[in-house]
Structures are given as C-alpha cells and as structure tokens.
Amino acid sequence: MKYIHLKNPSKKYSFREVVRYGQPPEGGLFMPEFIPALPDDLLSAQRLSLQEIALEAARPFTGNDLSEHELSTIISRSLNILLPVFPIAGNDFILEL
C-alpha cells in the first residue's frame, strides 16, 4: 500500500514513511492511494476477536512494512480494552463511548 500527500499526489509514500512523518512537511494530509474492501465474511458468525478483526482490517494498509508478528503485537497492545457494545435491533449494534 502506498500513500499520497493530498497537496502533491504524484509523490508516493510507504506506511513506514507516513508513520515517521506523521504529517507531510508541507502540511496537509497523507491518504491511502485507495481504500481496500474488507472481506465479506470478516464480521460473520466466525466470532473473531476484536484483535483478529483489526489485524485483517489493518493488514492491507501496512503492506510489507510490518511483519505479521509486528502488526499483531501492535494491535494486541493497543486493543487490550473491553468495548461496550450493545444490541439495538437484529444484527445492529452500537458502541458506547
């Protein structure tokens, strides 16, 4: 996955560069070249953990800049919280913030 600088979309940046810079030196924002679709079955009855869902969702954005182990470690350390999710109707849920 490559990222573009919105003020200069001809220059491409890697995930590592975007994380290192945070914001482009000239100001503005970095954006992925495209937003990949998530697998249709990601949220199905497989009952994946929050960390497993996050890993699948984040993987396309990091490309080869992070190993599977590095990304998994970052996610497990970042998402080690309980998220209060409540059903509202059928398969619809809401996250309490």
Overall mean pLDDT: 88
Q: Which bin fits the share of residues in helices? A: 25-40%
The largest sheet has its strands arranged as 2-1-3
Q: What is the alpha-carbon Rg in Å?
A: 16 Å
In whole angstroms, the N-to-C terminal distance is: 31 Å
Low-confidence stretches: none
What overall geometry do the principal axes of the alpha carbons give?
Answer: elongated
Give the biggest sheet.
3 strands, antiparallel
Q: How many helix segments?
A: 3
Strand content: 15-25%
Structural class: alpha+beta
Overall description:
With 97 residues, the chain is of the alpha+beta class. The protein is 32% helix and 22% strand. The chain is built from 3 helices and 5 strands. It has helices at 15-21, 50-62, 68-78, and strands at residues 3-5, 8-13, 30-32, 85-89, 92-95. Helix 2 (50-62) packs across helix 3. The longest helix has 13 residues, at 50-62. The radius of gyration is 16 Å and the shape is elongated.
Question: Which structural traits does this protein have?
Answer:
single chain, 97 residues, alpha+beta, three-stranded antiparallel beta sheet, two-stranded antiparallel sheet, 3 helices, 5 strands
Lay out the secondary structure.
Blueprint: E1 3-5, E2 8-13, H1 15-21, E3 30-32, H2 50-62, H3 68-78, E4 85-89, E5 92-95
Antiparallel strand pairs: 1-2, 1-3, 4-5
Helix pairs in contact: 2-3
Compose a concise summary of this entry.
By secondary structure, this protein is α+β, with helices and mostly antiparallel strands.
